[in-house]
Design brief:
Elements lengths: L3 H10 L3 H22 L11 H27 L6 H6 L7 H36 L2 H4 L1 H35 L3 H15 L1 H5 L5 H32 L1
């Protein structure tokens, strides 16, 4: 369980996350919709599909929001466990491992829950605007698209969390917030397109991928906590 203080601090530290998601995602949806209007019918099918535009927009939002996320985590978490602050963390009454775990859980939970809720809401809303007439003419196809963008939204958030956890691990290991930021950018370039490529996957495959990535995220979380614990023991 996350204590109320850490929940409050996570809410305060991530106070701008809603604005970032809404602005970036809506701008991306509008941008790709406009590009799609000028494309020839058969030239780029992904830009002619509501689902495809939602996927591309999710990829952009993933990139921007993950950088925002690591910026906040660098300032509010990693800096407390590197450099001069690292030594001070050993005097925490409840232990540096427990406090780190509480702070990390609070930040990741706040980040992921708001990200998932808003990106799902925006993507579903866009599908209704883009393909609303299919509710009556082709309801099965319409609701399949809704289910698909929901799963892609989950994938977007999970990939973002994976990138953040990897960046935190690297940042603490090498005692540098700059390295954690660089790691975030590199990972976005390397694996960020997983979301874009999910457009061509069957919905069942996306669900399986989500389950696997969730497992990887849990494993990374455990590795991170063990790093702090072992560092504490070594001290």
């Amino acid at each position: 369980m996350i204590n109320s203080y850490e929940k409050h601090m996570a809410k305060t530290n991530l106070k701008n996350i809603v604005l970032w998601i809404i602005v970036v995602h809506i701008f991306s949806l509008i941008f790709f919709s406009m590009i799609g209007k000028f494309e020839k019918i058969d030239s780029d099918f992904i830009l002619k599909s509501g689902e495809g535009i939602a996927v591309l927009s999710s990829t952009v939002t993933l990139s921007v929001l993950t950088i925002y996320g690591i910026y906040v985590i660098n300032r509010k978490l990693i800096t407390r466990y590197i450099g001069n602050f690292r030594e001070k963390s050993y005097i925490y009454p409840s232990g540096r491992e427990n406090i780190f775990k509480e702070k990390l859980l609070a930040l990741i939970y706040r980040y992921a829950s708001i990200f998932l809720f808003l990106i799902c809401l925006l993507n579903i809303g866009y599908i209704f605007l883009f393909e609303g007439t299919k509710v009556f003419s082709s309801p099965v196809h319409f609701f399949t698209d809704i289910l698909c963008v929901c799963n892609i939204s989950i994938l977007t958030v999970l990939v973002s969390v994976i990138i953040l956890l990897c960046s935190i691990i690297v940042g603490i290991k090498y005692q540098s917030i700059n390295i954690s930021l660089v790691t975030t950018v590199l990972l976005i370039v390397c694996i960020g397109n997983v979301v874009a490529h999910s457009y061509v996957l069957h919905i069942g495959i996306i669900v399986i991928v989500n389950i696997i990535i969730f497992g990887v995220a849990y494993m990374l979380f455990k590795i991170l906590i063990d790093m702090i614990k072992n560092d504490d023991v070594m001290k």
